[in-house]
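May I ask for an example protein's residues together with how it folds?

___
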Amino acid sequence: MNLEDFPALQGSFVESEKKLTEIRSGFRAAVEGPHDEICVFAVGSYGRSEAQKDVSDFEWMTIYDDTQVSSAEASLYQARATAYFAANFGRRNLSINKTFGEVASFTDLTTNVGGEDDTNRALTYRMLALCEGHPLNQSKAYDAIISKLAVTYASSHTAGHRLLSLATDIARYWRTLRIDYKHKVDERKKPWAVRSLKLRSARRLAYFSSALYMVAFGPRITYTTARRFDPVTVEAFMKTMAGNPVKRLIAAAKKVDADLNIARQLLEKYDATHRELGVQSVREALEKLDYLNAMDDENFKRIRLEAVAMHETAAELIRRLPDPHQKQMIEMFLL
């Protein structure tokens, strides 16, 4: 089983990677600034290499080394990057001044984790840098960010013996996305239908793949031989976590001896959902759909049922995991 077995997802991966390669190749020449102290990540559908022609916006985030660069310098760099992205994608296809409109510093991401000052924004930037983001400007800052996050999660007793502090943040980010949907729909009056279906499909699959990947490949220590993680080992693991969630899920499923027939069923359902949400006319109709009439809409009902079936199949995949791995999934991401 490989990504190539799922045509819609494979097509999005190929097109996304092609565009990201193009963006990377011209970035440094087009964007002036302190490249090695700032890292720009593609996130969202491009960060997952799941972008779909005509319907996917380009989203990015900017993280800077605040021991070397001021927030004003980082904001100027972000503005120049925005102009570069507008020239490549078209300004109407950019998500400007939304979730990622503000730059974030190394300090924002690596201190106060779990504390009063650890905002949803900081959590989001941190998790996307680790689990979704594609660095675009070939910057030394990327290595520095991952290195600092490795120390943040692994250098104290809060790591546990299976890097539980990181596992907890991955789960916390998923829960944050679920409740953020309520805020955006109820209070900010955002269109709800596509957002709801993506939360049930793409967002859930990305979380599930991160969790299973953590169980399959996450570093561990044995207390009889060690008391602390080696940050270098943790950093090396963290650099493998991001990118396409389907490739990550397939690799993890094989590693833990999961039932690959069930994994295939899950990804076939995801492929179907992904394909349907890539049809522009369907998305446009969904964006106008009134919540009270949702179950009278054939497109919404069909795609929602596919997403529900994804959820049920993912649960079945966990139920059939070999005992040690099932136990780890429950302990790390449920209890």
